[in-house]
Design a protein that fits this description.
Elements lengths: L2 E4 L3 H13 L4 E4 L3 H9 L4 E2 L10 E4 L8 H9 L7 E4 L7 H11 L9 E4 L17 E5 L2 H11 L6 E4 L2 H32 L3 H8 L19 H11 L3 H21 L4 E5 L14 H11 L3 E5 L5 H6 L3 E2 L2 H4 L9 E4 L17
Parallel strand pairs: 1-2, 1-4, 2-3, 4-5, 5-6, 7-8, 9-10, 9-12, 10-11
Antiparallel strand pairs: 6-7
Helix pairs in contact: 6-8, 6-9, 9-10
This protein binds 1,4-dihydronicotinamide adenine dinucleotide and ligand HP7.
1,4-dihydronicotinamide adenine dinucleotide (NAI) binds next to helix 1 and helix 3.
Length: 359
């Protein structure tokens, strides 16, 4: 069985590496980013940037970044040389309705799903920082026909701890964005209640401890706002098909929470931002609200230093930050007499007197 993983980013590469261990010699990866391909080749992986190298593939596992309307997925599909009888599994997160467009796309190429070619959607739901491999979590699987579902079962059942089969492929699409949007709403709720607590001088952590002592409730922690690759994007995907006052309000509330942090600091301050990765415990600066915060504070006329236990000072410097250790050398005075921002207590910095007016 020849397997090809399409898109070798965060998800695709980890999937590729996982499968290489299971199906040694049978797995190849493709990515349109030449630098990525060169980097992986240098590390000894069997990868290519040229779709023409991919012949007689039995199983295509699609994990490209989706694009706003699935454009990367369709670009990949357009280049793949498809053999009759092969299985295409779309693992990327999709704007609802995309799988129907994929089926139409294949039909335009003369391929009928369920007879000429098998098509399934098995959205990824790995939790980086928690899961050990990309296949630790049960997976939802949806298809247009029973034949497609059966092909999918045969491939995935030995790889994942469980398959949740759904009878309507739209359920598979929606399940992914809904689970992330549910989390988005939970985080926004935390931000709103934390904001209220900060206004009232109530200890939010104590409130969390109290509320979370009921076993079916989880009041989450706050951070610099909702970042990462997925929650904000999946909120946009869902909002593009589901008109909801709640969803609209949630995006607005997160924006307001982030602006409030910047507004509370004001301008002309020395500020230390503690933690810039996109979330606690995961060493990744992409789509980080911590990075956005530093830019916004600087744009407001503050001098900002950062520290993050996940990064060395050199890594932070090369990412363009002033590092806490630099401050003495720069003779800029100490941030100790300025403002210190902690990611989970962003609204409780020690406020300089002139700002302590309940903003
Ligand atoms: N990162 C995460 O925690 C999770 C991501 N996902 C979903 O998985 C998908 C991939 O996400 P990531 O790996 O994080 O993205 P990424 O941005 O790290 O990697 C995507 C890769 O796809 C490549 N690509 C784009 N167009 C291509 C094409 N036409 N052919 C071949 N390669 C192409 C890019 O060059 C890039 O290397 C997205 O739909 C995302 O929403 C799902 C669950 C978790
Ligand atoms: C735990 C969980 O369900 N993760 C899913 C999620 O992963 P991601 O790494 O984006 O996680 P996560 O939701 O923790 O943080 C996002 C932001 O919220 C902020 N956040 C988070 C928790 C909290 O208590 N407070 C908070 O502010 C936090 O600071 C971030 O800024 O999307 C992945 C995806 O589809 O790609 C899914 O596969 C994962 O299963």
């Amino acid at each position: 069985m020849k397997i090809c993983v399409v898109g070798l980013g965060n998800i695709g590469f980890n999937l590729f590496a996982f499968l290489c261990q299971r199906f040694a010699g049978d797995v190849i990866g493709v990515d349109v980013n030449e630098r990525r391909v060169d980097e992986l080749r240098r590390q000894g992986y069997r990868v290519t940037g040229d779709y023409r190298d991919l012949t007689e593939i039995d199983v295509w596992l699609m994990a490209p970044s989706t694009g706003n309307q699935g454009e990367n997925l369709f670009a990949a599909l357009g280049q793949m040389v498809l053999c009759p009888g092969s299985l295409i599994s779309v693992e990327s997160t999709l704007p609802p309705g995309t799988m129907r467009r994929v089926r139409e796309f294949l039909a335009e190429k003369g391929l009928t799903v369920g007879t000429d070619i098998y098509l399934i959607h098995v959205p990824h739901r790995v939790m980086f920082g928690v899961d050990k491999t990309v296949c630790d979590t049960p997976r939802v699987i949806g298809a247009f026909t029973e034949a497609c579902l059966e092909k999918g079962r045969q491939f995935y059942a030995p790889l994942v701890p469980g398959l949740v089969e759904v009878s309507d492929i739209r359920v598979a699409e929606l399940s992914k964005v809904v689970e992330n949007v549910k989390r988005y709403i939970d985080v926004v709720f935390a931000e709103e209640i934390y904001g209220y607590c900060a206004d009232q001088g109530v200890d939010y952590n104590e409130l969390r401890r109290a509320v979370n002592s009921k076993n079916n409730v989880e009041l989450l922690e706050t951070d610099w706002g909702i970042g990462g690759e997925c929650l904000p994007k999946d909120m946009r995907f869902l909002r593009s098909v589901c008109h909801s006052t709640l969803l609209e309000g949630a995006e607005q509330a997160d924006r307001q929470y982030r602006s409030r942090i910047v507004r509370q600091v004001g301008s002309g301050k020395k500020v230390l931002v503690r933690g810039v990765s996109y979330k606690t415990g995961v060493k990744d600066l992409k789509h980080s609200r911590g990075v956005d915060l530093v830019s916004a504070l600087e744009a407001a006329g503050n001098t900002v230093w950062v520290e993050d236990p996940l990064f060395t000072a050199a890594e932070l410097r090369s990412a363009g930050f002033r590092v806490k250790d630099d401050q003495e050398n720069e003779n800029e005075g100490s941030v100790a007499d300025g403002v210190v921002l902690e990611r989970q207590r962003a609204l409780e910095m020690e406020l300089p007197l002139e700002l302590d007016n309940g903003l």
